[in-house]
Hints:
This protein is α+β, with helices and mostly antiparallel strands. Helix content is 36%, strand content 20%. The protein contains 14 helices and 18 strands. It has helices at residues 3-14, 41-47, 107-120, 162-176, 202-222, 267-278, 280-287, 293-297, 344-361, 378-383, 393-401, 404-410, 412-430, 435-441, and strands spanning 17-25, 31-36, 49-52, 66-71, 77-78, 87-96, 124-136, 181-186, 192-197, 200-201, 226-228, 242-250, 253-254, 306-307, 309-311, 318-320, 333-335, 387-388. The strands form three sheets. Strands 7, 8, 9, 10, 11, 12, 13, 15, 16 and 17 form a ten-stranded mixed sheet that branches.
Amino acid sequence: MGKQEDFVLRALEEHEVRFVRLWFTDVLGFLKSVAVAPAELDNAFDEGIGFDGSAIEGFARVYEADMLAKPDAGTFQVLPWRGEGPATARMFCDIQLPEGGVSYADPRHVLKRSLAKAGDLGFTFYTHPEIEFYLFKNEAKAGRIPEPVDNSGYFDHTAQGLGQEFRREAITMLEAMGISVEFSHHENGPGQQEIDLRYADALSTADNIMTFRLVVREVALSQGIFASFMPKPFTEHPGSGMHTHLSLFEGDRNAFYEAGAEYHLSSVGRSFIAGLLRHSAEITAVTNQWVNSYKRIIGGGEAPSYVCWGHNNRSALVRVPMYKPHKGQSTRVEVRSIDSACNPYLAYALLLAAGLKGIEEGYELPREAEDDVWSLTDGERRALGIAPLPHNLDQAIKAMESSELVAETLGEHVFDFFLRNKRAEWRDYRRQVSQFELDRLLSVL
Length: 445
């Protein structure tokens, strides 16, 4: 048993932990949990905890159901929202097969594979997400219109505002779990919030996002309100994205930075962006995986709908933030399509794979988009070589189906399951009679 496992066993006694929750994520990005007694952890570290994988979305077929959840001791944290009484802790798990070896259906392993490939090329991959979500006074159930907790707008500071108190408590809990927060503020929509996590390696960030989503919901419920990461809950208000800043480091050196280059962006950084752009349509079904995700993408505002990049251009799919003098280490690129309801392990694995493909193949970066891309006509965009992102889940599925990059990155099992699930979601969506149709047609036809 290693030092990290020894630390966990000592921490269990120090914090009087009575329950340990072992967390893992299914292919669609839903958090799963099994609770074990502290006395079982020795065995869990050595052999894992068995569970029925056929009951988890995308993990196993019935005839290959047995799986093992093996805790990652480096992710141990005491859960701060349990209050008085026996403490509860959590650890993320890697999923393994009973006969040995990793499960290729484990999203965490998919990301680890991509990170290992980057490591073979000498790179460490860092990410920094800006996570948006809505707070409602009531839980959205069938037939009930969700009511935002306020009518405030971007950066508004409202006296006694529910969102302000919510962000204070949520950030306190996140930091108690070792998750550093950089910024927080009210977003454009009524009841819409944004909390930005400090940059970290991509695996830690993905774990942090899964924790973040649970903390946000727990804090909301404790305050008698409801939080949702649905990409576009309102027709008339902005959707919730998860703009993510990406960078590659070679040791302590930022591989995206080059003194004297345009925007101080190195050839590695330019090829990485070119890879993101060339493969953007193929990976959109994962970065924007729900039928509702495309209501945000085509909804205007600051949601990108076209494949282009720009320097400090917030209408572009990929933005190169303004360079800060003498801060070469902060040089990065920002992907603006990804939404906060994605599976972060799969999404980050594909963003990294697309960027690395651009580096390995030496992709040339196309011309920068200097205009507000939304204000251009279709003809002007075509003349500039700016193609649209998929505008619905069906288009995204078709782009993903023929992608060697996505199939290789996700692995056969995850690739096939994900496509089957998304095709079923699209079929179910298409056969629904919407409120729009009833409002527009029922009384006149």
